TrEMBL record:
InterPro entries: Ser/Thr_Dehydratase (IPR050147), TrpB-like_PALP (IPR001926), TrpB-like_PALP_sf (IPR036052)
Statement: the UniProt record of this protein carries the keyword Kinase: no
Domain Tryptophan synthase beta chain-like PALP residues, every copy: 60-350
Protein name: Threonine synthase
Pfam families membership: PALP
Length: 362
């Protein structure tokens, strides 16, 4: 397997023999071109079951991936819930972290630097701890206290910033010798982890669904699905691309605004994991939605709160940002974007165990 970086902005291409998180020529986001891709399933019962299509060695793993896929009969006979919140640190981010930290180790990094609203920071901190290297995590000051406590408990250095955007700037500016910036919104290696969700859905269902509905902020899971399903198409293992439906939170809906125009600007108070204002891969996200014949919609906090309560009462201990997919699915159904006959996978991305203090108030 040979791998190259390719800039999505200027087209610059170079062999992926050292760590880059953005284009060294123009600063644009990077994609990976992989030559010699072949799928051979291993006997492992984690993400590295798909190691034959992951251009990294499994230097570190906490058992991420192979999360349950269950039929949600209360939503319909053809609706499935993918329980990504049951990954080791309680979010889908573990898929990306396992690959990104493994690749950082492969390139000789002794420390990783990340900016996050919480889940990615927890995940990178955990995988750095498992790898025996240092982690420095920048978070917005108003990130949930539970998430900040977890990052500290995992041994990472936690630095608070005035805002989510400032956290990113501070993280990038801080990178020193033998350190790498693993910022998940930019990192092409991170997407090589999230793409395994596409392979896993095929592995679990025996085919691909008609549609996938998921929360979207920086879009790393959406792009992972887009990359993974495209690879499966190119390998001749599937014959269709599932429609990808992105659900965004009020006030942080850059993708929706790019495709449909203005939306409500009042920032969400509940969906803290979806607070990215300017995702660096926005054009790539638009392309994934359009070419999959999907769409994007925005959900308000009052709708999100009701769906969070409903899903908790159904036994799903998820964070508010994950609950946003339920009203998203219902709107898609009611507007005929989806039908009762469509086989749909709804992704629940983050654990509610980090939100016990908030649950007591609702």
């Amino acid at each position: 397997m040979r791998v190259w970086y390719r800039c999505l902005r200027c087209g610059y291409t170079t062999e992926a023999s050292s760590w880059f998180w953005r284009c060294p020529k123009c600063g644009g986001p990077l994609d990976l071109i992989i030559d010699g891709l072949r799928l051979t399933l291993s006997e492992r019962r984690d993400l590295w079951r798909f190691s034959s299509v992951i251009p990294a060695r499994p230097f570190v793993s906490l058992g991420e991936g192979l999360t349950p896929l269950i039929n949600a009969s209360f939503l319909g006979k053809n609706v499935y819930l993918k329980l990504e919140y049951l990954n080791p640190t309680g979010s889908f981010k573990d898929r990306g972290s396992a690959v990104a930290v493994s690749k950082a180790l492969e390139f000789g990094a002794r420390a990783v630097v990340e900016d996050s609203s919480g889940n990615a920071g927890i995940s990178i901190a955990a995988y750095a701890a498992a790898a025996g290297i240092k982690a420095r995590i920048y978070v917005p000051r108003d990130a949930p206290e539970g998430k900040k406590s977890l990052i500290r408990s995992l041994g990472a250095e936690l630095i608070e910033a005035p805002s989510r955007a400032e956290a990113g700037k501070m993280a990038i500016d801080s990178v020193g010798p033998s350190e790498v910036y693993v910022g998940h919104a930019w990192n092409p290696w991170f997407l090589q982890g999230t793409k395994t969700l596409a392979y896993e859905l095929l592995d679990q269902l025996g085919h691909v669904p008609d549609a996938v509905v998921l929360p979207v902020s920086a879009g790393t899971l959406l792009l992972g699905l887009w990359i993974g399903f495209n690879e499966l198409l190119n390998l001749g293992l599937i014959n269709k691309m599932p429609r990808l439906y992105a659900v965004q939170a009020q006030g942080f809906a850059s993708l929706y605004e790019k495709m449909h125009g203005e939306s409500m600007k009042e920032p969400t108070k509940l969906a803290d994991a979806l607070r990215v204002s300017n995702p660096p891969r926005l054009e790539q996200l638009v392309n994934a939605i359009r070419r999959s014949n999907g769409d994007v919609l925005v959900i308000m906090d009052d709708e999100l709160l009701q769906s969070w309560k409903l899903l908790l009462r159904r036994g799903f201990i998820i964070e508010p940002s994950s609950a946003i997919v339920l009203p998203g699915y219902m709107k898609l159904l009611n507007s005929n974007y989806l039908s009762k006959d469509d086989e749909v996978v709804i992704v629940l991305t983050g654990s509610g165990l980090k939100y016990i203090d908030i649950m007591s108030k609702i």
